[in-house]
Structure formats: structure tokens, C-alpha cells
Amino acid sequence: MKVSLLEQIVPYFIMVIRALQQRHISGLGSEIGGHIGDAKILAQNFQNCTFNFISRAGNSVAHAMARERSFLFEDCTWVEEAPASVESAAAEDRRWIDPP
User: Fold this and answer.
1) Model confidence pLDDT, tens digit, residues 48-59
2) Which residues contact 61 (CB under 8 A, 6 or more apart)?
3) Which of 14, 17, 28, 76 has the fewest CB atoms within 10 Å, i.e. the most exposed one?
4) Is residue 51 part of a domain?
């Protein structure tokens, strides 16, 4: 059975989130452990900061925004209107809160 790249890396995402949630860093390589440590130091600048894993299916608007951004080669700002794919994902999310 062939496993997709996403299925292969999601466990690592979850492992990173769990490491961010713990007080001490353990069991991670020195490179990723350094990034985890940096993130924890930056998080101390906030009154409250939590780290949670949200799957792509549960975060479709952010995924659509990231996908749109990956096609651009310059900085951009969406103020009043977003790309159609992002607006569509947001409309789909709203259906869960306020069904037609």
C-alpha cells in the first residue's frame, strides 16, 4: 500500500506540537530541538500562547491561503477581497456555523 507524503509527515507535525506543549525538550534531534527552543522563547512574549495541531481538513481557509501564496513571488496583502479559492473555503466553513 502506497503512503502519501502527507501521511508520512503528519506524525512529525504532531511530534513537534507535543514538544512545544512540554516543559522540557527531549527526544528531538538537535536541529529541530533548537527550533522548538526558539519557538518556546518567542512564545514567552505573549500573556497566553498555546500550540495545537489542526489537520488540513480542519483548517481549510489557512490551507487555501497558503496554497494561493505559494504561487506568488512577491509580498501581498488581502484587505477587502481574498482570492476566490479562499473565499470559497471561508464560505464552506461558515456553513458549519450557520447552515443554509
Assistant:
1) 999 888 877 778
2) 86, 89, 90, 93
3) 76
4) no
